[in-house]
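Appendix B.2, paired examples.
Example (i):
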Amino acid sequence: MPHVHTIILGAGPAGLSFAHRLLQLGDTSFVVFEKENEAGGLCRSQDVDGAPLDMGGGHFLDVRRPDANAFLFTFLPEDQWDTHHRKSTITVHGQDIDYPFEANLWQFPADLQQAYLDSIAQAGCLTGEPKPDTFPEWVTWKLGDKIARDYMIPYNEKIWCLDDLNELGTYWLYKLPDVSFEDTLRSCREKRLIAKMPGHANFYYPKEGGYGHVWRRMGDALGGKLLLNRAPATVTITPLGVDEFTCDRIITTIPWPEFVRRADVPDLIADSAAALKNAPVEIAYYPDNLPSPAHWTYVPSPDIKHHRLLLRHNFCPASRGYWTETNAKRAAEWGKRERPTSNAQRPPLSNHPLWKHVNDYAYPLNTVDKPEQIKRILDWGADNGIVGLGRWGEWEHMNSDAAVEAGMRLAETLV
């Protein structure tokens, strides 16, 4: 059996970055297993209607990660990327306002502004109430009942499709924009954004080839070390190996439920992997150019199928149209029920999308028990030469630039 120092499962941003950082550090004894016919994972792109479309949903490179960017620019130079100032909106009350919501209430009519401000003023975080432990209560405690009711609760119900949002924990909410009540008031008085923009305030997007362009180049640069169309069939723990290869360690970026299906793991680890939850997402492309300057738009209304629109013609050169993102479970249920005959918030959709794709693993869910379950899995892995990396290996909602940094840092730690 061929032996290598490291086997890497998955050629998405994390796996590719780990592999190339190994090469830079002089470690050439590895192979990368990838089930698809090209590298990129959720960040792959495909030509649809004459231009690239990002089949994993909306992915952009944040300018605020210089190490990750410099690393990626060695494969796709900086002059082959466009720089954009983020324009994202939220559709509420038939109107698009800029993101983040609470920092742009000033864009609503005066009576709505006042209603939201009155609600925020009574939020528990301002009146001294203790911080709650469940997600729905936390949203109301932090933002007031009106923002919770009009935006945050329905949006999260759509994107996660959980029976009960109380299944979500609160440990991850530090990632949400944190806009003070004082800044919200000031923005309404001065009619301008006061708070800082959150992540991806400015971002890079390739001039050609879609977001998948850089990952294809990284995959091609691995040559024979990248095994395409090779989903691992069997993972053995003793001796450690995958299919015909043995190794000293396995770096896995694939979802843990997929890993344990291929490996003889203890029942407790299999149960922990089964307890992890994720959201599948359907991507659907429409050829219409929408009359909006936004790069993407969040849509919380339960009367509309999708939770997000990405207006391709506003960030992908020489393209037209947009695509929608919908939880795949919601998409399947939506087809069984009668659709509203009219809705002021609905974009002028064509009758049918020109293209669809379902990502079975799109977003990991931050359920209440996830930290306990993933820690148990990762601890077991560490005892057996197996390391979880990236969005699925660490079960974190990790953007591609963060996954690149995680791959680089792990390689530097292990070599």
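Example (ii):
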Amino acid sequence: MTRFNVVAEVPVDAGTARVYEHGWQSWTPTATYRLDERPHRVLDPNWYVVNYRGPEYTPPAGFHADGLLAVDPGTGGPVRIWAAADPATAVAAIRAEVHNGHLRVSADGPVRETVHSGPLASALAEWAGGYGPRPARIRPAPTIWCSWYHYFLDVTERDITENLAGLRALELPVDVVQIDDGYTAELGDWLTCNDRFESLPGLVSRIRDAGRRAGIWVAPYLVGANSAVARDHPEWLVGGAGSPTSAGHHWNQDLFALDPTHPGAAAWLTEVFATFSRMGIDFFKLDFIYAGALPGRRYADLPEVAAYRRGLEVIRAAIGPDAYLLGCGAPILPSIGLVDAMRVSPDIAVEYAARDGDMSAPGQVPAVANGTARAFQHGRWWVNDPDCLIARPGVQRREGWAAHIERYGGLRGSSDRLSELDSWGLETTRRLLADVPPPTPFPLG
């Protein structure tokens, strides 16, 4: 059982105090709460591993954050922030519960407290400006067209080609055509395409010949149970051949985590990404990378956060410094300094509300909530990705989603079948892609 030690007792006003909970990864709910509010928690047990750190980190009551918790006491006193002392090696879980007119804050690992004047949003921005292994530079994000939110797993090479032609015909300012999930034969066998794709190198060449850059979706830390990698190299998995660590269940199969500290697995990562790079791909969406930080036995005796970072360093070495890395489903604090852009919310969906009200599931409500709560990270750690614009008819409350992207969209992408956009959808897509904000902090508010 994880042991939590008390790090502070904060006098609070029960009516006006606020607690900011920061979630573990891109999709984990992140929000500010009143003391009498019940924080969002996982509803589907399968997503304990996928969206959270595991059931042992989700308390039945009280507040819980991974690596970052802030308190505005509501008394006129300063905002107090507790954060993981070194997110490159370990991320402490931090909890808070009301006790006799105080908020009792505890942590299961090293944390550092800072004190800030002003409102909570300003305090978080000030704190973030001096935290973590800062990136050497924050580069502007390219604009993208992404296949996922129309075609999903059924995407074909012909679909990509159709929309590549549509970009030219509609004169849309898109830099990168990103091939999303659906091109592989099996999850984890990244260099083997399914029969809906005749030639990935040929498709990349056509994208580049059309004057666009080529991007691709990869979940580098995930290995599906049905893959050749799982069958042929079980020793590459976290937990080893005998008892691989579960990374959840998705794509109708059990998932395992790749161990980048194993020399063979590291060589495989290098081969995959160097091959993509040689094809001419220079935009990489790294998805579901929470799996790289799962607890479990590894080849090298490293903490899981350090192992996660080592894998990203292997990938960066394979693709070179100029390629653009977008993290998604990613542990937030351990990724500082390693990615160019970060998804800061769950997936968008055609539906406005998430299923069963689950704030870690796809939907506009959770995407807007997380994207707003993490707006302070843009321009300080990376470019914030709020997820793609979907503007076609049938998207519920599409005007509101477009307004969120206009306000908090650092990385901007379209993910509609372009031929299905109506006049409003096309005009909105063109306008938001043509007016991308710089990689500097958003105005507070």
